[in-house]
Amino acid sequence: MRSYGGPIPRERHYYRLSDVEKYIDLNQLSSQVNQLDVAGLDPEDANNIARFRKAMERRAQGKPGVSIPLFDE
What we know:
Radius of gyration: 14 Å
Structural class: mainly alpha
Distance between the termini: 15 Å
Number of helices: 3
Strand content: 5-15%
Number of domains: 1
Shape: globular
Low-confidence stretches: none
Mean pLDDT: 82
Largest sheet: 2 strands, antiparallel
């Protein structure tokens, strides 16, 4: 998502799990992602894995899906 609320546009990344699960079973995907070693990955791929894991943690905690994206910190 890009926002233009200030002088510099900001790019934000998040996962909407309801969109992902249209294409693949989330339990199967999560199992495969959790086996990955992020140490050998480039930073962008490692960040994507971290975002996915964070989204799965929120779901496991019973937190609602993201209607307003949770931005990277």
